[in-house]
Amino acid sequence: MHTVRSFCRICTSVCGILVDVEGDKVIQVHGDKDHPFSHGYTCAKGRALPQLHHHPDRLERPRMRVDGQLQDTGWDACLDDLGTRLKDIIDRHGPESIAFYFSTMESAGFRMAEALHAAIGTPAKFSPLTIDGTAKPLVSDLVGGFMGLSGRTDLDNTDFLMLVGVNPVVSHGHAISMPNPTGTVRDIAKRGQVWVIDPRRTETARLATGHLAPRPSTDHAVLAYLVREILRDGRKPDVPVQGIDELAAAVEPFTLAHAAALADVPEAELTRLCEAVRAAKCVAIETGTGVTMTADRANVTQWLAWVLMILTGAMNRPGGTWFHPGFAYQLEVFGDLLPITPIEGSFGPGPRSRPEAQAFINEWPCAVLPDEIDAGNIRALINVGGSLVTCMPETGKLIPALQRLEVFATTEIINNETTELATHVLPTKDPLERPDITIHDVLSARVSVQYSPAVVEPVGERRSMWWVFAELGRRLGYDLGTLGDPDSSTDDDVLAILLAGARVKYDEVAATGWAEAPQDLPAPWVDEHIERMGGWRLAPPLLVDQLSALEPPAPLVFVPRRQRKKLNGQLDFMGERAEILIHPDDGIAAGVVDGQQVTVRSANGELTGIAKVDESIRRGAVSIPHGHHDANVNRLTNKDDIDVVTGMVRYSGIPVSLHQA
């Protein structure tokens, strides 16, 4: 047996791991105590990589649908057929009839798929952005004037952290990385304060110094009250801002009495939180899917979180929030050339079938995919690693739409409900079978990059994802060789190209396993950008209007939840059940008892799962985890119920009722 140093690619925390291997068998994964970022920490998901690699339903060779049935085939036959059919569709209906869905942690494969998408020239691009994350880049765009650049907390130095709708002890954060979240939260609580705003007493809330449990979908009221009070007494005077009068008018209705009543929390608790905010040097705030999946409320809540950080002097300052300059793609090199985005937002034309659903950051809303297919506008879909059946809204309309496609090609490592719908299944190397670098370098908690060699040889006929898309591009007549030649390039050759302009070159990263650059606070390029803009834009009209239009939520609503042994549509084999958390009073009202099967109904559909009657969740909230096939929350959603600004579908705050199954 021998041990290989690697890093985990289950989530964006990318913790350092040591993998014990015997022959072609992966024995065990444990934490790398010498790793400079995670220091030996691993979670249950990362330690399950051996089971993922040896999964009984793993895909080992290409599959192609023939006479309605999926059959094993060879790579040449599969790619020849896929290329021929895609070329025919492009010739008949144009490149815009081909759509891509991007969701993968594989760096080389992701970049090659992007290159193929660009070569085809189709505007039809989808990703998880419009499933759980549009509010953060939107507020960055409108308030900060930079496209898609979200802040992240200075976890090493902050002494006041507010966590709104996020449970990092389980999720490791949202759109950020937080290795060893339990230790991180405990350390911050020891040297200062950690407040959790969440309708459930989460695993993170149990470690916090304060917990406020508002009604679901009313986080904005809590933050609007805090902003109102800080504007009156407590804002840092030396922070450059614009729109302060408009902001003050927007939050004026959120008095202590009004905010407490709307959020259904005691006034004394709100006052205690406000006093803590006033006393803090600066306030660092992290939000998660409990915020970002609430459609229009997400935009308003994220905006007010940014405003509170701006007013307390947290932006681009030690102990507050910093902006990642990138490692492979270096943002700060633009200097005064970093473009200032318009206060109206960076939007573009959307799909023809849903003209009200505009494009945001060059992506279309996932919710429109069935309509585009039904209208005949999208004839083929290339799925880059997504579990569409468990992640996209309104499953009842999504599945028939996918079945109507002329071509549905998907890359995957394990057979699942999505691959069973495909016309072409492209088995790619799993995380332990390929050398890799950290892909989303701007999601890291540090300005860094990591490298891992392949731990084991690929099973069966699995190929590198970049090779698959390069070969497909060749069959379509596109030369994607600038990223790698499928005839001669190795995986490491492609990774070296991806790091050609990075802060540290590939050979050095590969030799050491990681590289880190200084995290400068304050970063001059951020301050210069805000100065050129005339100050942080506190009151974008779009967000002010959305705040004034919000109505109180329904008495009983569904809210999302992450699990320790589940990640979206992955890791079913770890046995995490789809338990539905219900407050005892809501259980009594519906006649539902603990451990019983319970049906949750919305206006659009229903699902059935196991009831867990628990006082840790407040009345009015029904908490259901994502990613389950047997209790698929997408069946409660409505593809027409979206935030028309960003295309974000409503995944939280959906009115529901409870019934004995």
UniProtKB/TrEMBL annotation:
Keywords: 4Fe-4S, Iron, Iron-sulfur, Metal-binding. It comes from the Bacteria. Pfam families: Molybdop_Fe4S4, Molybdopterin, Molydop_binding. InterPro entries: Asp_de-COase-like_dom_sf, MoPterin_dinucl-bd_dom, Mopterin_OxRdtase, Mopterin_OxRdtase_4Fe-4S_dom, MopterinOxRdtase_cofactor_BS, Prok_Mopterin_Oxidored. GO terms for molecular function: 4 iron, 4 sulfur cluster binding; metal ion binding; molybdopterin cofactor binding; oxidoreductase activity. Residues 1-57 form the 4Fe-4S Mo/W bis-MGD-type domain. Belongs to the prokaryotic molybdopterin-containing oxidoreductase family. PANTHER family: OXIDOREDUCTASE YYAE-RELATED, TRIMETHYLAMINE-N-OXIDE REDUCTASE. This is Anaerobic selenocysteine-containing dehydrogenase.
